[in-house]
Every structure is written in C-alpha cells, then in structure tokens.
Amino acid sequence: MNSEAPAPTEESPPVSESPQQDMPRRGFVMHLLTLAVSGVVALVPLISGLFFFLDPLLRKKKSSGGEFVRVTTTSAIPDNGTPMSFIIRADKQDAWNKFPNSELGSVFLRKDKEGEIVCFNARCPHLGCTVDYKAGKHEFVCPCHDSAFELDGARTNAIPPRNMDSLEVEVRDDNEVWVRFENFAAGTPEKKPV
Amino acid sequence: MNRFIDWLDHRTGIREIVHDSLYEQVPGGARWRYVWGSTLVFTFFVQMVTGICLWMAYSPSAQTAWESVYYIQYEMTLGWLVRGLHHFAAQAMVVLLVFHLVQVVIDGAYKAPREINFWLGLVLMQIVLGLGLTGYLLPWDQKGYYATQVATEIMRAAPVAGPYIQKLVQGGSEYGHHTLTRFFALHAGILPALLIGFLVLHIAIFRRHGVHPKDPDRAPADPFWPDQVLRDAVACLAVLAALLGLVIWRGAELSAPANPGEPFSAARPEWYYLFLFRFLKFEWVEHLGLAFGAIYLPGLLMLILALMPLTAKIRGGHAFNVLFLWLVIAGAGGLTGLALYEDWYQDDADSRDFRAAVAAAHTDGRRAVALAQSPSGIPPEGAITLLRNDPLTQGPKLFQNYCIDCHQPDDGEFENPPQAPMLAHLDTKGPVYFGSRDWIRKVLTDFANHFAPLANIEGERAEAAQAILEGSMAEWSSANGPLLQNDANAEDFDALVEFLYAQSLRPDVAPPDDPRVVRGREIFETGTLTEGEFDSACIDCHAMHVAGEAEPLSEDMQPILTNYGGNEWLRAFIADPQSHYAGEYGNNAMPAFAEQLSPLEIDLLARWMTGDYYLPEEAGESH
Predict the structure, then answer these.
(1) Count of C-beta atoms within a 10 Å radius of residue B296
(2) Cβ-Cβ contacts under 8 Å, A33 against chain B
(3) Nearest to A45 among B19, B85, B379 (CB)
(4) Are A45 and B239 in contact (CB under 8 A)?
(5) What is the pTM of this model?
(6) Which chain B residues are within 8 Å of A4, Cβ to Cβ?
(7) Where would I find the H helices in B399-471?
C-alpha cells in the first residue's frame, strides 16, 4: 500500500533484514525504477491539478474595463464644480456568465473652473473602499481609513499612496458624457490597471 | 537532513512507521495478484486531487452547475483533462472494485480472521457506488438529470420510508437548487469523509493480518518494498495510462443543460448500472414490482455476499461463494451485454429510435456549447435559455409539430398525401429550401408543379387551393416561364432571382448595388428582358418596398413581396397568411398560426427558415 506516495529517498537503503543483499546492483535498479514509476503515477494527476489551480494566472486577461462607457449627459453635472457620483454600467463577463449592463463600479464627475469635465474612479487608491464626497468640507473622504482628497483629486493626507485615479472623459454628440472606465491596483504609488 | 529526521523520529516514531509499512514481509513473495487494493487507493488519490480542483470551479445550483462545468471543460486550463480524469477514474474504481473483490474471494482472503475487513470492503464498495451516483448528477446536464431521476424514483419504491427518503435526498419533491446542494455535500463532503474513515480502518486491519498468501510456499517471503511496491506502481501506471487514453480518445461528455420540459429519449444510467436497468425491463420483473427488482433482489445478493465469511465455514461453503460470485458477475455481464446489444446493434424500431435520440442529444450538447462560446455568451438566467431561444434547435421541432403534415419532405413516411410545397428536410438541419434561389426559380417558371400538392387539400380550404392553382400567378408562370428559361435570358433570370432573394435580407444575399440585383430590379419593374417582355411586370400585381428605401416601388397590392422570404414577411405570413399575403384579392389555403403558436415560437420558426441564427466560425472538433 501507500505505493502512490513517493517514498522518501532518505529511507531507501534497506539496511536491515533485507534477504537479497547478495544482489546489490539489481536492488539499486529496482529501487530507482520503483521510485520513478511511483513518482510518475503520483505527479501526473498532481501536476494536471496544479495547472488547473493556476488557471487565473495562466489565462489571458479578459477584463471588463478599459472601454468607453456612456455615463450621463453634460447637463446632469452641476456647473458650480460640485462632484456627482455615477454608477458605471457595461456588459460584464464573470467566468461563464455574460451580464448585460451590469454594475462595474462608480465614478465622480465634476466640472472644473474652465467647465471641463473631469472624472475620478471612486475606488480609494489606498485599499479599495469607495470614497465619499463630503459636501460640507468640499473634499473626498474614504470612510475606511480616512484617506482624503481635494476636489481635483489631490491627496490631502499621507494615508493614500497616490491621488485619486482620474479617468479619461469624452463628450460625444455635444452632450453625452463617455468615460473610459478602469480599476487600478490599490496600495501602490503608481497607477497600474488591474 | 539526518538531524531533522532524528528530531522528528524522536517525537513521532516516523522511522518505525515508514519501516513497518515498507518492509512488511509478503509471504510467498511479491505477486501481481495483490495489486488491486493499491490501484483502488491510487484511483481514490486521483479522485481527491482532481475532485478538489473541480470543487474550486464548480457551482452547485440549477442556474450555475451546467454553466460552471461548461467553463471547466471548455475554458479553464487543462479543465478537460482534470474533469476527464475524474470522470473516468470514477468508472475505473468500479471496475477495480470488482477485480479486487474477485481476487479476495477466489483467494479465500475473506475468511476468518479477515471477516471484518471483508465487510469493511463491502461498505467501501457501497460508498464508491454512492459517489458515482451523486457525481453523475452534478453537471446538471440532460444525461445526468434524467438518469439520476430514475435512481431517486427507485428510492421512492423502498418500503415505508421510500417517499421520505426520496424527498430528503432531493431536498424537496422536485429536482432543483437543493437537489444539487445536497448531492454536492454528499459527493464532496460526507461520502469522501466516510470513504477515508473506512479506508483507514480497512488498511489498518489489512496490516494486522497481512496479505493473505495464495500459496505461501511458492517463493521466499519478500519485503513489501521494493518488489511489491514496484508491481503496485506499474499497475497504477497502467490504470493511469488507460485513464489518459480515455480522456484523450473520448473525453468526458457534457450534454445539453438539464431541462425538465425537454424529453431526453437517450436516457441511460451510467454503464455499470446497465445490468440493473436491463433487469428491470424484463416483463416478469416489472410484474413483481420495482421494489423487488431494484431493492429486494440486489439487497439479497449483497446479503449473500456479506455472509460469505460465515458461509465459508460450512463444508463446500468456499466453493459455493466462488461459484455465486462468478454467477452474479456472469449475470450482470450478460445483462450489460444484452442492454448494449439492444441499444447499439439490434435493428428494430426501438433501437433505431434510441440511437437517433443519442445522436440528437450529442447534437444538442454540442449546440449548447457552441452557443455558450458565442459572443452573446451565457445570459444571467443560465444556459437553459441558450437552446430554448435557439432557432436552429427549436425551428425543426416546431416545424415537425405544426408544419410537416402538409409541407412534407419527399423522403418521409406520411399517412396522407402532402397538401403544400416541400419547405425543408429535417434530418440534415441544413439550409431550408423555402425561399431559396431554387425555390424562387420554381415559383416563377414551374408554379403548377411547385404548388401541385395543394390539389390534395380537402374541406373548406379546398376552394382557395383550387383558386391558387388556377390563379393569375399560375397563368403568369406558364405564360412567362418559358421566356425566363430562354438561353438568351439566362442572365436576366439570375438577376431577377437575385433581386427577389435579396429582399429576404438573409445572411448570404447580394448587396443592393450588386449588378445582378440592380438588373433584377429593373426587370421586376419593367418586365422587359434581353429577349422579349413579360405579359405583365411583377410590379403590376405585387406590393414591394425595398429595404432601406424611403419610397415603396409599389403598394396596396397583394401578395406583398416586401421582405419576401425574410423574417418579417415570414412571421406575418405564419401568423396570418390571409391578411398579410392574400388579402381581399388573393387566395390563401394555409391556416393562420397566430392562435396556436406564441410570437416567440413564430419568431424561432421564421428565423430558422431564414437562417438567422448563430453558427460558429468553423465547426471544429474539440473535447
């Protein structure tokens, strides 16, 4: 029994009570062969299983972000520079399922002094919680660890490793606001797409 | 290293454990006949490794089970291999169990003092069979769904507690989410835990008594390592090679998603239960009741098996046991063979139907996978909708139910003569004849023959049918058909057909600016050919609004040719041919189907007939 487990090599020389010490060469070949065959038999399922387990690392990424999504119209964003939160909806592939028009995350849209629309991913660059806008203080604050940001996304304390993640905005057909939605790795000073 | 082993040994006695398990003496020397137990432990090891991997990707619910198994099989790294190994190792375990049992019985290894171990072995056998049964359902495909239903219906036949047991196992009175969660808990939790527990006992007691030597004086005793281990390992290698061969050659099948509304005439239990399946089909067994055939008799056989160690104490008992085992195996083997023969080789209606059902099941399974892999993917409601909303799958079925009696293919067998033109063959599921270029040619030049089956219509629609056969289009066709078939007009004929065909907007139509389409349109409007002229142009009688254009070519005339042979035209036609096609001036002999078919069904039928469904880029083979 136990033949499927590779026997520890340290144990291989059968020093005691082996009746066939007269044939050391044959004994050595037998040991090697037995270890080899047992090893193959055990490793084939283990390695197949390992590759299967490593699937998330091995497969090419099929991200649901990185594409422009229509979010709202220009008139929905206040002219006074107050940020508004919007939910990003797009088709989402989750393993076997394709979810049409599913929530991917949320963003803040605001008009800056020149009236240009800027966009921030609401995911905190610190550890991925969703940042709130505090209307009274005119700043973004993360409820988890108090990361705070100015309205232009610049951090005001050292808790987050970088400023809020800005996203590309395009205004199409005069009034449609499109955002290239992406999530970025939290906890690092660089802005790296996940 | 040695110091570490010393340290460990001091605390655990590891040296002695390893030594005892490796250098146990095998009386009579190492032999091939002792390998079966080890191969079983090995296949169980394979099941643990692959099973835990599958567990990480499997999702037990009626809306995700098939879907996650599809994802394992077709999308994940080596998923086909891991699932394939699990699938075939499960079957190998049953085969190896039988070998192990036969070896134990004919060698007399079940006799005192090894009775307990024999009984533990029988318990292990039940657990393995239970694992096979519960695992078969988990993919939630048609095959597993219908086969397992039979098993749970058999549970119901058990005396007194039957219905309660069935309900408990199923997690309710119907199959659903909780059937899967329960089966999964049994399959991946309770049964493997029991198996490990009993296996530990089985091996511990085996160690206590050692190998039962067939003939101890054959050769000097050998230690277990390495001679017997090598034999065991080589046997395991052979098992592994066989498994890999099966995975590559056959692969684990995934039939269409389970659908209680979709009959599955190819239902059979897993092959190692075929003997029982066939046995229950005998008329005399059916006469004695399901409980007798499926519960009492197998129970009795198991009881005799369990009593073997006691029977052996009687004079001639061992011989009886061996004979009994061989008889049971021969009986089961014979019944399995009979079932296989009847299903696959016998040439009668039932067997042919079964084989056709299996082929259809394969087709549906492949189609479901192709749709799951299509750009639209698996919707949130689950894969069951893939086939339900697939024109290629549903179209032929609807056609079979509602259309085929009148629109008969020329190769079928029907009681009554056809009453309408042939539209499609069902066996090929290939391109539909209706609305094709050939169809249009025949309508234009050979109207009388094309619609000849209308003459068979009897009853109230007979008059309309007769009017069609003697109507203006019939006259037009016989008058102008020869003109179209004139060699000088061959290109014009093609052009007119191409223009009419282009109206259907089917995937393979020529674009509107194709010279043939442009020329065809000219002919449609003017009736002027290279040589000669129609006695009346198409536009003089038919309404036509070319797709994408603001103004119609002609309107307020029927039959309407706008989108002729296309989805919209066909949907309106099937729903109510009289109002859409014939109108007040025309004649129609086809009943309206708006009452009998839902809008979705009409849409599926129309889209099937016009070829408006997803087809994979290349019909490649995969496993």
Answers:
(1) 16
(2) 226, 230
(3) B85
(4) no
(5) 0.88
(6) 38, 41-42, 45, 233, 236
(7) 437-445, 447-450, 462-469
Contact B233 A38 (CB under 8 A): yes
ipTM of the complex: 0.87
CB pairs under 8 A between A and B: 141
Which domains, ranges and CATH numbers included, belong to chain B? 23-351 (1.20.810.10), 400-619 (no CATH)
Structure-token pair, residue B153: 């219906």
Check residue B368 and report its DSSP letter. Answer: H
Q: Which chain B residues contact residue A21 at CB under 8 A?
A: none
**Mutate which of B17, B25, B46, B227 to test chain A, going by most A C-beta atoms within 10 A?**
B46
At A59, the pLDDT band (50, 70, 90 cuts) reads confident
Secondary structure class of B96 (helix, strand, coil): helix
> Is the model's pLDDT at A20 over the cut of 60?
no
- The gap from C-alpha B134 to its chain's centroid, in whole angstroms, comes to 18
Which neighbouring-strand residues pair with A68? Answer: A180
Q: pLDDT tens-digit profile of B141-152?
A: 999 999 999 899
Spatial CA neighbour of B483 closest among B474, B471, B497, B493: B493
- For residue B522, give how far its alpha carbon lies from the nearest alpha carbon of chain A (Å): 40
Residue A17, pLDDT > 70, answer no
Predicted pLDDT of residue A12: 43
User: Does A45 contact B206 at a Cβ distance shorter than 8 Å?
Assistant: no
Supply the mean pLDDT for chain B: 90
Lowest mean per-residue pLDDT among B115-124, B387-396, B556-565: B556-565
- Select from B354, B371, B263 the least CA-distant residue to B614: B371
Min Cα distance A6 → chain B (Å) is 10
Q: What is the mean pLDDT of residues B416-442?
A: 83
Q: Which residues of B touch A23 (CB under 8 A)?
A: none
Considering Cα of B601, then B603, then B609, then B611, what sign does the dihedral take? negative
Judged by CB atoms closer than 8 Å, whether chains meet at B71 and A96 is answered as yes
Q: What is the 3-state secondary structure (H, E, C) of B261-307?
A: CCCCCCCCCCHHHHHHHHHHHCHHHHHHCHHHHHHHHHHHHHHHHHC
Q: What residues contact residue B571 under an 8 Å CB cut-off, 6+ apart? A: B602, B603, B606
Taking only the tens place, the pLDDT of each residue in B292-336 is: 988 999 999 999 999 999 999 999 999 999 999 999 999 999 999
Q: pLDDT (tens digit, 9 = 90+) per residue, B612-622?
A: 999 887 654 44
Of B37, B38, B76, the CB nearest to A52: B76
Per-residue pLDDT reduced to its tens digit, B601-611: 999 999 999 98
Q: Which of A96, A99, A102 would best serve as a mutation to test chain B binding (most B beta carbons within 10 A)?
A: A96
Name, in order, each residue with C-beta under 8 angstroms of B37's C-beta and a sequence gap of 6 or more.
A1, B100, B206
Chain A residue numbers with beta carbons less than 8 Å from the beta carbon of B52 are 49
User: How far is it, in rounded angstroms, from Cα B60 to Cα B189?
Assistant: 13
